[in-house]
Specification:
The complex is a heterodimer. Chain A has helices at about 40-50, 75-80, 95-105, 110-125, 140-150, 170-185, 195-205, and strands at about 1-10, 15-25, 30-35, 55-60, 65, 80-85, 160, 190-195, 205-210, 215-220. Chain A is of the alpha/beta class. The two termini of chain A are about 30 Å apart. Chain B contains nine helices and four strands; from the N terminus they run ααβαβαβαβαααα. Chain B has a four-stranded antiparallel beta sheet with strand order 2-3-1-4. In chain B, helix 1 (about 5-20) crosses helix 2, helix 2 packs across helix 9 and helix 6 (about 155-195) runs parallel beside helix 9 (about 260-290). Chain B is elongated, with a radius of gyration of 30 Å. Classes of the chains: A alpha/beta, B alpha+beta. Chains A and B meet through helix 2 and helix 3 of A and helix 1 and helix 7 of B.
Chain lengths: ~240, ~290
């Protein structure tokens, strides 16, 4: 599903963001990428979305050789995956419904399709009643759920979430994580970049830890830190 | 592009232009102002070239025949003139016509011609040229024809007309190019503000997989709407202004003839329409370029 082969990324200002990274996330997996800010996890997501190109090595996503993709083909790569960001990135001038429907309009989907898919997606995140409300009228958690509905409306095989709970309180964060988990249960591969220890520990999923551009740990059913130093954290 | 996408594009362009009312209004104002300046220059240019055109249409060479020539000889001269490729058009002036003209010129003093026939007057040909520059050569050539007594042409006047026409044309082209460039630059900048205000939206669209053209089209529609509205307002303003100014000026300056309002409106109309569209399209395209590279 997502594969990094000997990927190195050096930014033009000389910063080494990734050093010879190899990972393989297979279909149906739920994986956390954890690390401090500046560790290189954002760079990994940027490479997946082809916001940046690797300095060397190859990135494969959903069968696309991302590093070899032409500029014109980028939109089609991005349509094949759903993306959720820390700052939600909803269109402020569109209602919740329009925001979700827009993702389908872009792909020139049939209006009939749109009318069927959008309510389904909104129902999945529990926001059917807020369809005609503008994003600014929603709480942070609700906005993130709209973003999630938008990411899922095209039924992408892969969902990428960049610090999805970074702007949310712990309670709401946990709800979003439960939703992501549910999405994963329906067969979607989910990759979440985060530095929130408590959530990672509680989820008990694959954890890829990255530090100063190198993978330092890759563990099935892992936790944020190597050993559980603080037993009370676990729920 | 599918039909529903075209619908989306037009609707989105309209909505965007309306949502950013203030910015759109500012842009329309800039376009209108540029169009009015452009329109004034166009009006001046059109009238200048119209007047030089009129001047150059006046007879340029007059060939006088010996007044003793018989019809056959005159016919021969006419053939020579007719067959010359440099001649655009010629008019035959018979002896009787020459007398009429002379009488008309002297108006009240017609008694002078009392008792005189037209025998003493020469037959002449009034000639228009294809190219004014050939006047001198042609005059010399005609003078050499047997039976031609004299050739009259005004080199000085022809020279002035030629010079004025050339400079008016060059000046026009330069001024119009400069003006268009300025208008485009200002409009591109104004639209850049709209684009800048919506750079986040553009960014989001890119992330959810919108193609460049899908993002670009609504902005182009918006630019064209702004350009066209500005052009229409400018057109109305120029029409009113020209109607008043040309009639006032025509009274003051007798030698100049002014192009009719309708004639001007046609030229200004399609120029404005074209400029409005081009400026809108280019303005949007230039402004949005930077934000598409995500």
């Amino acid at each position: 599903m997502v594969e990094f082969r000997a990927v190195t990324k050096e930014y033009s200002n000389g910063t080494m963001a990734l050093k010879n990274v190899n990972i393989n996330i297979t279909k149906g997996e739920f994986a956390f990428i954890v690390g401090q800010s500046g560790s290189g996890k954002s760079t990994m997501l940027k490479l997946i979305l082809k916001e940046e190109d690797p300095s060397s090595g190859e990135v494969f996503v959903n069968g696309y050789n991302v590093s070899a993709l032409k500029r014109k083909e980028i939109p089609y790569l991005r349509r094949s995956l759903g993306t959720v960001f820390q700052d939600f990135r909803l269109l402020p001038n569109k209602t919740v419904y329009e925001n979700v429907a827009f993702t389908m309009q872009i792909t020139e989907a049939l209006p009939k399709e749109i009318r069927r898919q959008v309510p389904m997606s909104l129902a999945l995140v529990g926001l059917s009643k807020k369809a005609n409300v503008y994003p600014r009228q929603l709480s942070g958690g609700e906005q993130q759920r709209v973003a999630l509905a938008r990411a899922l409306v095209n039924n992408p095989p892969l969902l990428i979430a960049d610090e999805p709970t970074g702007n949310l309180d712990p309670e709401t964060s946990w709800e979003i994580m439960k939703l992501l988990s549910e999405v994963n249960c329906r067969g979607t591969t989910v990759i979440v970049a985060t530095h929130e220890k408590s959530i990672v520990d509680r989820m008990k999923r694959r954890v890829i830890a990255i530090d100063k551009g190198s993978i330092v740990r890759d563990q099935k059913k892992g936790q944020y830190e190597d050993e559980v130093k603080n037993k009370q954290v676990c729920g | 592009m599918k039909l529903r996408t075209s619908k989306y594009v037009v609707k989105e362009g309209l909505i965007n232009a309306y949502r950013n009312k203030l910015m759109s209004l500012a842009s329309v104002g800039v376009v209108t102002a540029s169009m009015i300046i452009l329109g004034v220059f166009l009006a001046v240019a059109i009238n200048l070239s119209y007047n030089t055109q009129k001047l150059s249409e006046q007879p340029q060479i007059v060939v006088f025949c010996d007044h003793e020539l018989d019809n056959k000889q005159i016919k021969q001269i006419e053939e020579t003139i007719k067959s010359d490729s440099r001649v655009k058009k010629y008019t035959y002036v018979s002896k009787e016509e020459a007398l009429e003209k002379a009488k008309a010129k002297l108006e009240g003093d017609n008694d002078i011609f009392e008792g005189l026939g037209d025998e003493f007057l020469p037959v002449s040909f009034i000639i228009e040229l294809n190219n004014l520059k050939e006047a001198e050569n042609l005059a010399l050539a005609f003078k050499a024809i047997q039976g031609v007594s004299s050739v009259r042409y005004s080199q000085e006047r022809i020279d002035i007309i030629l010079k004025v026409a050339t400079w008016v044309q060059i000046g026009n082209v330069i001024l119009v190019i400069i003006l268009l460039a300025i208008a485009m630059f200002i409009i591109a900048n104004t639209i850049k503000l709209t684009v800048f205000a919506r750079r986040k939206e553009i960014n989001i669209m890119k992330y959810i997989g919108a193609t460049d053209w899908f993002i670009r089209w609504p902005f182009i529609v918006e630019g064209v709407i702004i350009g066209l509205i500005g052009a229409i307002i400018g057109f109305v303003a120029i029409s009113i202004f020209y109607g008043v100014a040309s009639s006032k000026l025509a009274e003051g300056i007798g030698i100049l003839t002014f192009v009719s309002l309708g004639g001007l409106q046609f030229e200004v109309g399609y120029t404005f329409g074209l400029v409005g569209i081009v400026v809108g399209v280019l303005g949007s395209t230039i402004s949005i370029r930077k934000y598409l590279h995500v």
